[in-house]
Design brief:
This protein is α+β, with helices and mostly antiparallel strands. The chain contains four helices and five strands.
Length: 128
């Protein structure tokens, strides 16, 4: 199998995912998964697509990710891995879609408006 690539986005994070046959190594920006995401619950988000289709330790994953924070990056990687798995095998699409792993979460931070302290928050109103 040649190298398959896919793109995942979440908030302001963009992840380019490269998948090829291997023994389950996940490398993110040149670091292993455990070094890049030390928290267990974030690592679980990244490995969710493999757990859903139950093919752990079958593919090597190499990821370039930039922008956003750790949660946005992890969910962008998760979407990229899910899209790559669907390219590899079309039968993976139904279980991944049922778990909502192929849906791009479009929510992002609303921009700050002028004359206000935050996007929607207003300064305290004084009647007199």
């Amino acid at each position: 199998m040649e190298m398959i690539n896919a793109l995942g986005r979440r908030k302001s994070a963009v992840a380019r995912v490269f998948v090829q046959n291997g023994d389950g190594n996940i490398v993110i920006n040149g670091k292993p998964l455990e070094a890049y995401f030390p928290q267990a619950h974030i690592r679980n988000k990244v490995s969710d697509p493999f757990n859903v289709v139950s093919i752990e330790n079958t593919y090597d994953i190499r990821v370039n990710v930039k922008g956003g924070g750790i949660t946005g990056q992890a969910e962008a990687i998760r979407l990229g891995i899910s899209r790559a798995l669907v390219q590899i095998n079309e039968d993976f699409k139904k279980p991944l879609k049922d778990q909502k792993l192929l849906t791009r979460d479009a929510r992002s931070v609303e921009r700050k408006k002028y004359g206000r302290p935050k996007a929607r928050k207003a300064f305290q109103f004084s009647k007199r």
